[in-house]
Design a protein that fits this description.
337 residues; two-stranded parallel sheet; alpha/beta; TIM Barrel; 7-stranded mixed sheet; globular
Length: 337
């Protein structure tokens, strides 16, 4: 049986070919800022956590950074105002969310090797008190359960059967439910899921070596990387009252600045969907000295569609080939979705 043709992937391969791509770049009409978002670098094989957090293998990340360094203007937070005023050129910003240790151990050396810079948005509570993030704990509960499904899944109207072998569909569905919950129901949801899966809550020692340390963050900052805020505990901010939002924003900023001895001016919204933040969130960011904030629902930032507290980012994923990566850079108006 012949597999169906993925027309989007085929077009990306054509655009990304070395012999075609220079022509496509000359013909491309895009101008502005394209922000790439990563979470983790490395190999997720064998992990019980959320596989989708791994954005690229070491080899793929190295190839992507090599291509970027040779072909594009890579910028950081300190460049945003200048390029916005100039309103010309095609600029690329590299970002990482959360503060996983592989960012320091694997991504950081590759970035230095290619003389590129990136911005790392830190969830300060994970550095201060290492614990499993809610998305990794949900994945852990589903993957370690000895059951074939959940009879009475929390917030589900019918039984959930675990898809094998990776149970990825079930994990994705449960993560989607969690993201929509009011903030005061999230812990109850995790407790109920732990009971339904028969696993209990994840042991605290599973978080050992998951997150970078403050010493690592300081080293990265001293060697040309930028740091930004990503809250204290990674809540979906729009699900919280203004007082809690302000606490998450202000305490995160203060903690990072105290640790690195410098101010920070950029922030990334946890989850980053259109409904993960609101006008109150943006107002609070401005109040506390953040000059730009980044969402996470795709797209690039053209000069005539520039919103400093909603700078769009496009995810890089494990399945992204180098040809598709080149196509994204060449024609983001097509591929940055």
């Amino acid at each position: 049986m012949i597999a169906p043709i993925n027309k989007r992937a085929l077009l990306a391969r054509m655009v990304g070919q070395r012999t075609i791509n220079p022509f496509m770049r000359r013909c491309s009409s895009w101008s502005g800022l394209l922000v790439l978002n990563y979470h983790r670098v490395g190999d997720p094989n064998g992990t019980l956590f959320d596989w989708e957090l791994w954005s690229a293998s070491e080899e793929s990340f190295d190839a992507q950074m090599s291509y970027l360094a040779q072909n594009y203007d890579i910028v950081g937070p300190d460049d945003l105002e200048e390029i916005r005023r100039g309103q010309r050129g095609r600029h690329v910003m590299i970002t990482f969310d959360d503060g996983y240790r592989d960012n320091y151990e694997l991504a950081f050396p590759i970035l230095k090797q290619h003389h590129t810079t990136a911005t790392f948005f830190l969830t300060t509570g994970y550095l201060d008190h290492p614990s499993l993030a809610w998305w990794d704990e949900i994945a852990w509960m589903v993957r370690t359960s000895d059951r074939t499904g959940i009879d009475q899944a929390p917030c589900l109207s019918s039984e959930m059967t675990f898809d094998e072998p990776g149970r990825c569909r079930a994990i994705h569905q449960l993560l989607s439910i969690y993201k929509q919950l009011p903030h005061d129901e999230t812990e109850q949801f995790l407790d109920s899921l732990a009971d339904a899966a028969g696993t209990g809550r994840a042991p605290a020692n599973l978080a050992r070596d998951q997150w970078m340390t403050w010493e690592m963050a300081r080293e990265m900052h001293c060697e040309g990387m930028s740091l930004g805020g990503h809250t204290v505990s990674h809540p979906v901010l729009a699900r919280h009252e203004p007082a809690r939002q302000e606490q998450e924003i202000s305490q995160c900023k203060q903690r990072i600045e105290d640790q690195i001895g410098a101010s920070i001016s950029v922030f990334a919204y946890p989850v980053g969907s259109r409904t993960a933040f609101d006008r109150q969130t943006q107002s609070l960011l401005s109040k506390h000295g953040f000059e730009a904030a980044f969402s996470f629902y795709g797209g690039y930032n053209a000069w005539d569609d520039w919103s400093p507290y909603d700078l769009r980012r496009v995810p890089i994923e494990q399945a992204t080939t180098l040809a598709e990566f080149r196509a994204l850079l060449s024609t983001p108006q097509v591929f940055a979705r």
